[in-house]
């Protein structure tokens, strides 16, 4: 970065109104504004308060298990024959993914505000699970909204949330998925503004959530900087992360935004193809618009309605993307790529069999791209991939896929025998 450029990092954290270029903002009904402003000003104070930082670091260490490991992947690097590959293992966090980190940050803020009641929305259930865990840890009442369809198909996560003491409310309106859960959570908030904190699950939504969740997640990139320097004596040449809403990607990228030599790549869900409804690639195939309180790229149909999305990984199956990433994409600071369902599943198997690590299907999108990239690079290049989560939660999906595959192979074998 030259002295004349303004720092991306400073722009993001000091944006009082939550605008990142034209993106972001706070486009919500009047009734929600006081609640959002209360959170925004609490965040403004907390982010520069050393006592808050000390408390946050202690909980991240003692409850989440930070810092997470930074792992060289020597066998894969040798097999691919290009760059040196490394992995940041966010899957080692308590509850199995990076999400616990911004849940801890927000729950500490909610406590400062004297809120006793936490509400959240969840699609696949991972955010609800992390939220239920922090609520139990701090003795706060927890209500999680879930579209009826998600509620039915994500029984294991519903079970864990309830075991942790949360009330899980199925939502029967609309398409009965994540967007309807968001609307139900907003309605609840309007009805109980005084005692309630809305704990949002990614770097999306109205101001201050995008900047706030980025602030809480940026510890990931800070750890990578230290760990990569200690391990290799240099910074990464490439940082690769999957992008659903964008919280794990922003967590990884933030600390490097002003290091021009570090290339940052977000990998979107390519699903089954580029046709509408077959993927969840907002930056590469979406259009700018306003939805769920913020301005960003969204997948839309020809008449500006929100389009349906598809990804084998539930965590990437969302129609919008962080307004901060939309801005960084336009500025050319973060590059974007896609990986398909099939490439992600193949990456799970490859990482499992070559390095003994089973990544979440979401994270596997980032690995699929990192493997392609590494093959083209010289051996001294350093490529770090964010393993946003571990793969155990995907048991049923992954098993179904590989069992189908082995059944097909078995059938093909029988045919060949004839
Ligand atoms: C939720 C989730 C994601 C997607 O969310 P982002 O906000 O884009 O990070 C990615 N990986 C895992 C493991 C998740 O649980």
Describe this protein's structure.
The model has no long low-confidence stretch (mean pLDDT 95). The protein starts with 7 loop residues before the first helix and ends with a helix. The chain has helices at 8-13, 33-47, 50-64, 74-80, 99-112, 126-138, 148-153, 155-163, 178-191, 209-217, 219-232, 247-253, 282-285, 323-330, 341-355, 361-375, 395-417, and strands at 19-20, 23-24, 70-72, 84-89, 117-121, 141-147, 167-171, 196-198, 238-242, 263-271, 287-291, 294-298, 334-340, 382-387. With 418 residues, the chain is an alpha/beta fold. 46% of the residues lie in helices and 17% in strands. The radius of gyration is 21 Å and the shape is globular. A six-stranded mixed beta sheet has the order 3-4-14-9-10-13, with helices on both faces. A four-stranded parallel beta sheet has the order 7-6-5-8, sandwiched between helices. The protein has a two-stranded antiparallel sheet with strand order 1-2. Pyridoxal-5'-phosphate is lined by residues 97, 99, 126, 202, 242-249, 315-316, 360, 362-363, 388-389.
